[in-house]
Design goal:
Blueprint: H1 6-32, E1 35-36, E2 48-49, H2 52-62, E3 70-71, E4 74-75, H3 76-95, H4 100-115, H5 126-144, H6 150-170, H7 179-195, H8 204-224, H9 232-242, H10 244-259, H11 272-277, H12 283-306, H13 309-331
Antiparallel strand pairs: 1-2, 3-4
Length: about 350
């Protein structure tokens, strides 16, 4: 066995790069104009650098030598090029806010380029739904980026769950199929060193949309592959359980805004984290609670994929019922907001 193993380098290299480069960007971000200033819709009270997304992307780029040629169905250089488009779009938006329709248009083009390469999506509406999924994840993690360590921590948990699923699917320990997950884990953990409360730097739209794209790709890879012979509905259910936190947060916020006659892209403080904090929780406690939800739901998704149906279905149903119960608790007739 050679040492260090490629799998170790795939997580250690991006971690070290992200830790070091994020520290550098904390100091140079003001000169670049990458400062997030407080305003009524945000929870931070002091100007904070928001260049961490550049560190995350650089860490992923520098991990390329320890990644296999493809990510399931997509050449890794192609994925990096398309991810770079999302990062640049987010960076421009960080510097000068763009209209929502222009951001959505570019994201849709990137999603279409990825979906075009994916086999296994020939069921009715498969490629359209896959494109919608990618765009939704890009924006879902951007929506989540509203409290210290929330979006990046959620991405780390989701990547961990997809790594466990990759190990199960490929049966090669930390081998083929788990490398992108490892790189995301390393790069995100390196950024989180600087982002845990009180955050000394934010990742900005460049980072949150990048992580959303990569999470979306990992989910799409699992849905499009059938190594264990799982039916499509099981694979979709697994991905939804693993990504339940960003899915629930985005769906609830969009529905709230639409019910109030507002644009789904109008920023506010109605996210899951804000709603928990409004009930008296501290912000770090709210983030920890959401992370715990993500771990529990993701673990149920892994069990659904790995256990026999008669054993896994009750667990998956229980997890799904838990999310539906949370929605009923938050938005049922007695809790409906006026």
């Amino acid at each position: 066995m050679s040492w260090p193993r490629p799998e170790v380098l795939a997580i250690v290299v991006p971690f070290v790069v992200a830790v070091v480069l994020t520290a550098v960007l904390r100091r140079v971000a003001p000169a670049l104009g990458l400062i997030d200033k407080p305003d009524p819709r945000k929870v931070h009270t002091t100007p904070t650098p928001r260049a961490g997304g550049l560190a995350i992307f650089a860490a992923i780029l520098l991990a390329f030598p320890w990644h296999p040629e493809t990510v399931g169905y997509l050449h890794f250089p192609t994925l990096l090029a398309l991810a770079a488009v999302i990062v640049v779009l987010g960076l421009v938006d960080d510097l000068r806010p763009l209209p929502w329709w222009s951001r959505l248009g570019v994201q849709a083009v990137v999603a279409a380029a990825i979906v075009w390469e994916v086999p296994g999506l020939d069921f009715p509406g498969g490629r359209l739904l896959a494109g919608v999924w990618l765009v939704a994840m890009v924006n879902a993690f951007n929506f989540l980026d509203n409290m210290d360590a929330l979006s990046a921590g959620t991405a780390w948990i989701v990547a961990l769950m997809f790594l466990l699923l990759a190990v199960l699917r490929f049966g090669q320990g930390w081998g083929v199929g788990g490398r992108l997950e490892l790189i995301v884990l390393g790069a995100t953990a390196g950024f989180l060193v600087h982002n845990f409360p009180p955050a000394r730097i934010f990742m900005g739209d460049a980072g949150s949309t990048l992580l959303g794209l990569l999470v979306g790709v990992l989910g799409l890879e699992l849905v499009a592959s059938d190594r264990w012979g799982h039916p499509l509905w099981v694979r979709v259910w697994v991905v939804l359980l693993v990504c339940a936190v960003p899915v629930y947060d985005q769906a609830s916020v969009v529905l709230l805004r639409l019910s109030q006659g507002r644009s789904p892209f109008h920023p506010d403080k109605q996210h899951l984290s804000h709603r928990i904090a409004d009930r008296g929780w501290s912000k770090p406690a709210a983030v920890a609670w959401i992370h715990a939800l993500g771990l529990a739901s993701g673990a149920c998704g892994v069990l659904l994929y790995s256990w026999p149906p008669h054993a896994a279905l009750p667990v998956a149903l229980l997890a799904t019922a838990g999310w539906l119960s949370l929605a009923l608790y938050e938005f049922g007739p007695r809790r409906r907001r006026t």
